[in-house]
Specification:
The chain is α/β, with parallel strands linked by helices. It contains 11 helices and 15 strands. The protein folds into 2 domains: about 220 residues, L-asparaginase, N-terminal domain (Rossmann fold); about 110 residues, Rossmann fold, CATH 3.40.50. The longest helix has 16 residues. It is globular. The termini are far apart. It binds aspartic acid. Aspartic acid binds next to loops.
Length: about 375
């Protein structure tokens, strides 16, 4: 009974803390001594919500609400994190990442660039829901103009669970963001003691804590109780070598994903074109394929100037040009190893520059 009311008061506190707060400087309760703090690198934590900030309304109940706790609460729940870095926290949003949207993306990406431009900042940690973390991470990798570490962390279990995974992910994320050896690796993801490139990870399990896998590549390294080990680097263009930027960008072009399956027709494609899509990504069967009816509808859209990228619903592998479909004739782009949501991210940014299919194919080969 006592426990239950303690939990209820956590929920009430969460509701109060969930409101956006301006930048706050920590020391948390057991801050390092001032002299030790002075020699620590500075890490800024940008919070967006997610299960890592999730609260169960009822103790022991698997149901919960994402994005309920503030960044101060998350820092307070990760013992020793204040000994790794001088922390500064900022609430960008308080949402489940299933609700991620362009307004939050543009705000977050602008803030990442502003914060990294500060000479006193070593790196950034972003707390984020796991549902769309791979899309946000890839987007940031294309528009961030710094080689300082940016590390996304989330969790599969809410903060109030019996065994939450968020605190150690946050602890390890701060350690990586503060580590000079993480410079130049692009946007990183720390999850379940693994260090990944956001470019390659994908969520592979609905609820398991071991959900993130870098398909086709493997992890970049490990982050274990604050110690980072790196055994690889991303090979695609990113951050300081990206041609894309936020300059003058107030909105992103509409790109829809259409899903292929047995007997599918062109209804989704027609609806996307009617809604004003400037690009369509095919989540194709197998090697980016679809029924003749679907391919005909896509070819018709391409003829009207909509850029069509073929990706696959399979979950791993490369979609190459001109295998079972003649991309040259159809005017399609092959999505290489980007899964449909990531292909959508790159296509949206590419469309801010060009509609030329050859130039967009080149972007898919480089990023
Ligand atoms: N739906 C949650 C979110 O993406 C899941 C999570 O964070 O693990 O915000």
């Amino acid at each position: 009974m006592r426990k239950h009311s303690a939990l209820l008061s956590t929920v009430a506190l969460a509701a109060v803390l969930a409101v956006a707060v301006p930048a706050l400087a920590f020391p948390a309760p057991q801050a390092a001594a001032p002299a030790a703090q002075a020699s620590l690198p500075k890490v800024v934590i940008l919070a967006t919500g997610g299960t890592i900030a999730g609260v169960q309304p009822k103790e022991g109940d698997p149901g919960y609400k994402s994005g309920s706790l503030s960044i101060e609460s998350l820092i307070g729940a990760a013992p020793g994190v204040d000994k790794l870095a001088v922390l500064e926290g900022e609430q960008i949003a308080s949402i489940g990442s299933q609700d991620m949207n362009d307004a939050v993306w543009l705000k977050l990406a602008r803030r990442v660039n502003e914060v990294l431009a500060r000479p006193d900042v070593a790196g950034i940690v972003i707390t984020h829901g796991t549902d769309t973390l791979e899309e946000t991470g890839f987007f940031l990798g294309l528009v961030t103009k710094s080689d300082k570490p940016v590390v996304l962390v989330g969790s599969m279990r809410p903060a109030t669970s019996t065994s939450p995974d968020g605190p150690l992910n946050l602890y390890n994320g701060v350690a990586v963001a503060a580590d000079p050896a993480a410079k130049g690796l692009g946007i990183l993801v720390v999850a379940n003691d693994d260090l990944h490139s956001a470019r390659y990870i994908t969520k592979t399990n609905t609820t398991d804590v071991q959900t993130f896998i870098s398909t086709g590549r493997g992890a970049l390294g490990e982050a274990y109780y604050g110690k980072m080990v790196v055994y690889g680097a991303p090979s695609n263009r990113h951050t300081t070598r990206s041609e894309f930027s936020l300059d003058g960008l107030t909105a992103l072009p509409r790109v829809d994903i259409v899903y292929a399956y047995e007997n599918v027709d062109g209804t989704q494609v027609k609806a996307a074109v009617a809604a004003g899509a400037r690009g369509i990504v095919l989540a194709g069967v197998g090697d980016g394929n679809g029924t003749q009816a679907l391919i005909d509808a896509l070819a018709e859209a391409a003829k009207q100037g909509v850029v069509v990228v073929r990706s696959s619903r399979v979950g791993s592998g490369i979609v190459r040009r001109n295998i079972e479909l003649n991309d040259d004739k159809l005017g399609f782009v092959a999505g290489v190893d980007l899964n449909p949501p990531k292909a959508r991210v790159l296509l949206r940014l590419a469309l801010t520059r060009t509609t030329d299919v050859k130039a967009i194919q080149r972007a898919f080969e480089e990023y």
